[in-house]
Design a protein that fits this description.
Strand order of the largest sheet: 1-26-25-24
Helix content: under 10%
Order of helices and strands: HHEEEEEEEEEEEEEEEEEEHHEEEEEEEE
Subcellular location: Secreted
Keywords: Secreted, Signal
CATH class: Mainly Beta
Protein name: Major royal jelly protein
Main location: secreted
Radius of gyration: 19 Å
CATH architecture: 6 Propeller
Largest sheet: 4 strands, antiparallel
Organism: Methylorubrum suomiense
Number of domains: 1
Length: 365
Amino acid sequence: MRAITMAALLCLAASAPHAQEADARAQAELTPALKSESLVFNGITRTKDGRLFSPFQRQQKDKGIQLGEWIDGKPQAYPDTAWNSWKTGDDPAKAFVGANAIRIGPDGDLWVVDKGAAELGGTPLPGGPKLVQIDLATNAVRKVHPLGGATTDKSFIDDFRFNGRKVYLTDAGQPGIIVLDLDDGSLRRVLDGHPSTVAQRPLTGENKVLLSEKEKPIAIHADQLEVSPDGKWFYYQACTGPLYRIETKWLDDKGASEQERGRHVALFAATVSTGGTAIDGDGNIYASDTDNLRILKFAPDGTQSTLVQDPRLVWVDAMWIDEEGGLWIPAAQMNRSKAMNGGTGKIVFPTTVYRMAIGAKPVRN
């Protein structure tokens, strides 16, 4: 796609003839699948044989699990209690300090990003930022991939995707993309400070500007990301959009200058404040709209439609498409948490993960 202007994108979004209105049949298929009466999660992933995992966000200092497996409808600390028991003063390299995103990798392992800071916007602890690889057959950590070589005291490692033996990670604090080579463990920062990785406006949820616990507007830079099924395209955005794309070859090329790389970035779609995304096997991207409580669907050509709109979809975060064509939808309510609501928690329990049959094929790059 050739580069297009922001004005054109906004015009396109506004003119889509009520593609924003939810389909009644789709609403009926929005089925509660998991609930918690006390825990706050911001993602979901599912193995081929049906095991379910979520990252959990602590609401009290040094208390609560950070990674759990849903067993009989209730989350249990995973892979064990020790990895979930980090408290201030403990070794940040050997436990979850701030687990933020998870997914089943193409190798079948469970992978977890730890931002290395206990609070939103906090300074990462030495040894804290890491990508943890867990063997699901033994339920034990297989390897820890340190990310400190590519982070700063402002970094907030947010989310990640695979492309062969490369892992792309977003830094939402120090705007940029990190490329991890799994073969040699090398780390590189790309699109560092590029306008496409920088939030251009404050974060909003339910049409309200979100405030930190210090009552300052929140800016979350490079956040959501997806890789096309064929591995050719890398899609990414700040939490407030819009969505950009670049060919993955420009991320992987160690010899390319940042100036050259930046020339290959193009606007793709007029996304808005977004909690999470997913991509299916046909290249359709699903992105939540945290203001209008809906999930938008963007075709590979950028065409926008609304998959579902429902008042229960408060801050939908990282979604997952299963092998049966079901979209797992965590209504995380993160905008109502203390960290995003000026220090006052207004989450309405139970928190819920929904599932919706969409008939899509999953991507397992």
